[in-house]
Amino acid sequence: MYHFFRKRFGFPPLKSFAYTFLNFRRFSQIILDRFYMYAGGKFGFDIENYHLYQDCAAAEPGFLIFSAHVGSYELAGYTLVATEKRYNALVFSGEAESVMRNRQKMFDETNIRMIPVKDDMSHIFLINSALNDGESVSIPADRVVGDQKTVTCEFFGAPAKFPLGPFLIAAQREIAVLSIHVVKKSPKQYQIFIQQLENKGDDVRERARNLARQYASHIESVLRKYPEQWFNYYEFWDL
After folding, report:
1. Per residue, what are the HEC states of the chain?
2. Which residue would you say has higher pLDDT here, 202 or 92?
3. Which terminal CB of the chain, N or C, has fewer other CB atoms within 10 Å?
């Protein structure tokens, strides 16, 4: 995190150390907020461009949502109620069974289904099935795992690798794509940023690259406002 603030934001050493501390502090607060809301607590939400989500949800075709390890995207699952079509969220499957079960119980109230990522790749079939049925699917698109194919984007003034898979799924179908990020503004208030990405290009690869670049640009615009809410705890850039 020190490298992130020092090299990507260009902060001086002391300010970089201070923001590293703020980052850990904010991460702790957000984890507690997740359990607070998980237990039935409430927060206020300001939603930027909510109409973009509503328009996609009201349309017949399925659509994709790209999230990131910025702020607390999980809280969007308790807020963006999917009344017109089911909302499917791709999630890490390594959490305790009781946590997964109780979280799904809460998500049922907002018509959300969790799709756990599994080694047998069965989640890919569930994603395709959901999109074929005209539902929405949420995928974190900022973290490369294993030997995934990547796409390189300019990100905070330096090249960074993003997983190609999520963008290919969208490009192959030419469906609507939203980039959604949720950040903490104050003790009881969160902000949701929504931006629609243009799924255009001469071929699948070009559309995927264009989507990745727009996605990276949207994350950067959010982090310029909330730099302490970047939670990818590894060397994201090749230093």
Report:
1. CHHHHHHHCCCCHHHHHHHHHHHHHHHHHHHHHHHHHHCCCCCEEEEECHHHHHHHHHCCCCEEEEECCEECHHHHHHCCCCCCCCEEEEEECCCCHHHHHHHHHHHHHHCEEEEEECCCCHHHHHHHHHHHCCCEEEEECCCCCCCCCEEEEEECCEEEEEECHHHHHHHHHCCEEEEEEEEEEECCEEEEEEEEECCCCCCHHHHHHHHHHHHHHHHHHHHHHCHHHECCCCCCECC
2. 202
3. C
